[in-house]
What does this fold into?
Amino acid sequence: MQQALILSYIVAMLLIIVLGLVGNIATIFNLFQKEHRRKTITGLMINLASANFLICICGYPIAVSAVGKETSLLNQNRALCGWIAFSSACCGFAAIFSLTFMSVQTYRGVTRLRLKGKASSSSTKTSFFLIALVWILSFVIAAPPFFGWNRFVPMETGGSCQPDWLSQSVKDILYLAFLVCGGFFIPLCVIFYSNFMIYR
It folds into this structure.
């Protein structure tokens, strides 16, 4: 039974990796076409696809390898455990923040269209600034366990790592609150507000 579950997990993850790589490469290629280059959120869409592509090459293969070997690989190697947790978190937050800024840019574009009768355009400098901000915010939220604010621990399955959600330390609980608020709750509120204002 255990072998069947491991095999199912490996097959599913390999399928996700292949589809993720192919789909995101195709998306990036498509977004570089001439008709998309001038669109306000194209840079953020490319960034979103790039974050998803990176997790397919930086995080998932290590998880598959750890489960496939049926060893406590991530228990034994703290650096590897930290890398898989950090890369997964950083790319995941980059995707969330890309979606957040896309919703804000769309809201700004719709507002400008309503008020001035013309669509909003975004400069290349603005796009680069937003993309840089996405990765800086992602790093700020994902990296603290490397510096002693909480820690990365293997998940029960042994196939990945995560922050220590079970720690009773006040310091660790504060980090988890920071992670949940900064990485999920605030972006969700911004996305909800932006979309509400667009469709109201």
